[in-house]
Design a protein that fits this description.
This protein is an alpha/beta fold. It has 2 domains: 135 residues, Aspartate Aminotransferase, domain 1; 222 residues, 3-Layer(aba) Sandwich (Aspartate Aminotransferase, domain 2). The chain is built from 14 helices and 12 strands. Its cofactor is pyridoxal 5'-phosphate.
Amino acid sequence: MTCDYKALAVAGVQGLTPYTPGKPEDEVKRELGLEKIFKLASNENPLGPSPRAVQAIKDALPSISRYPDGSGYQLKQALSKFYGIDEKQITLGNGSNDVLELIVRAYAGPGDEVVFSQYAFAVYPLAAKAAGAVGVAVPAEGWGHDLNGIAAALTEKTKLVFLANPNNPTGTWFSESQLRAFLTKVPEDIVVVLDEAYCEYISEPDYPDGVALLQSHPNLIVTRTFSKAWGLAALRIGYAVSGSDIADILNRVRQPFNVDTLAQVAALASLADVDYLKQSIENNRAGMQQVTNRLQSLGVAYIDSVGNFVCIEVGDDAADIYQRLLLEGVIVRPVANYGMPRHLRVSIGLPEENEAFLNALETILFPNS
Ligand SMILES: *Cc1c(COP(=O)(O)O)cnc(C)c1O
């Protein structure tokens, strides 16, 4: 008799369905024999990385036989200057995804409740489940977080709350006054994670700066990443900013060398490239306008987004439209796994990429015009 190695896994892990990433460009080229691909599926920075990051990586290449600096000293120094915080408040991660998992591992165990919004980023329920914790999805308000509903869902068993501002995939956001009102309702022994993966893109005056709220809310952890506006998605580097006690705990559970040397030097070099960040933000602002203007003129509905992506309501045949866009060489992201079977999420690209997507979408949706 052979052993059932699936049944042998711990219960939380048995229940997992792997995260579905955006379809890689090479895969589409292989499968469809296409040359030109427009990948607008993973909210990456279409400008490519900062040239300074590329140079820093070249400079560091001869040293890759050595282990990375496990403390991330230089990068933490730079981040602490950047934000005006102490280095002891920072936890570096292999992408902010790593940090999100460290937080669950440190603060939630079997039977504990982890609360998040309906339509929220898929990693929260995944990480909770893997830890054997109970994920509690609070019904959204429209497409966004219902912070009052989330506050009302907290129980004796709640250990963690995840908030995404803005949320991926919906692009919805909440204001500083809404967040402050929420935080005053949360008992101080419940840890609140504020995921600000897209914060650099946002110019709304009432958009809260999570880092500035740490002083008054010691149960808060803010997570940010170099994957989106900073253009380093492949290197896997993100971080948490929190009180130093929480950071101490997170640093105990992370792997000793969880962020590699090339990621550290590239992030450090990028942080100094303010012009690159400005260009990235400007490209996104113009691209969002380009995409939404065209959707409006076509009469196609979408969810207002402050991120570098937008969810478009294409209708009941979204899965089919996704496939037909692929045939045109355009990769977008289906979001049926988020309970949004009528939408597709598209990332803002370069002007010509946005144009290619919009033209393909128009041809598919309105074949006779
Ligand atoms: C992309 C994303 C992240 C993290 O990405 P990493 O590459 O792991 O840093 C985290 N949260 C949200 C909401 C995201 O969309």
